[in-house]
Amino acid sequence: MKKRKFQRVRASDIASLVCMAIFTLILILPLLWLVSASFQREGEIYTSPFRWIPMEFQWKNYASAWKVGHLDTAFISSVIIAALYIPCHVLSCVAIGFVFAKYRFRGKNGLFSLILMTMMIPQELTFFPIYGITRTLGLIDTHAGVVLPFLISGFGIFFMRQFCTYIPTAMMEAARIDGCKNTGLFFRIAIPQLRPAITALAILAFSFIWDEFAWSKLVLNSAERMSLPARLTTLAISPSHEVQTTELLAASVLAMLPLFLLFTIFQKHFIASVTNSGIKG
């Protein structure tokens, strides 16, 4: 009887693994096509059936994309934008989330509801008033102007508030008795316990700002300050108004690499934050 039960459980586990493998393959199939097509000649991309392993790897596609698309300046610009955005965004969201989770004040629930309501507003609708503010501050065609609208997000505040609720109140009270001020509670008690969540938020913030296109295309005018997604649009069309397909595919792979490397390095912290939220929630 036990043997039959063991066999049934094992068969169900194998079926689950097969289903997850198929689902994962469906998700990564476009990425595999992108990488494969970036190494092929122009004509090979449109052959039917598609050749997943190129007959001859065209490494020159990447060199041409880097040179023609001026990706060196685009990478530098995107790195500067990310370096400005991530610390400001993460610190502000963690601080505000900590206040909503651990402090009591009048109008707390109503204010938090308003923050959640901002998540339902399409961000593009706010571009017009924010553009006026950015223009008044003289931040047009600057990296700071790209960062300005996204410094604080409703999702980031909600995300960090959920984790801050798990910080033991008794630990904070003990720290207060020992003379720890509010700043000390935040940096000495909250921050060390929120490291997995902070890492996850930083990865999400980097993923967002690295791929952000609409606002950066609107604010940045000069070619040397253009971010990577905006630069890809100029690479898509040559001076002769022809789509440079192979260069565009190669540039897309290069643009994707930082996100892949970042998640690979910090995946343990990201998975730990999701797992901890599931256990404690």
Description:
This protein has 13 helices and no strands. The mean pLDDT is 84. With 281 residues, the protein is an all-alpha fold. Helix 1 (2-38) packs antiparallel against helix 13 (245-280) and helix 3 (71-102) crosses helix 10. The radius of gyration is 24 Å and the shape is globular.
Q: What structural class results from the helix and strand content?
A: mainly alpha
Low-confidence stretches: none
Give the % helix.
over 70%
Radius of gyration: 24 Å
Task: Report on the biggest sheet.
Answer: none
**Proportion in β-strands:** under 5%
Distance between the termini: 37 Å
Question: How is the topology of this model organized?
Answer:
Blueprint: H1 2-38, H2 60-68, H3 71-102, H4 108-117, H5 127-136, H6 143-147, H7 154-164, H8 169-177, H9 182-193, H10 195-211, H11 214-219, H12 228-236, H13 245-280
Helix pairs in contact: 1-13, 2-13, 3-7, 3-10, 10-13, 12-13
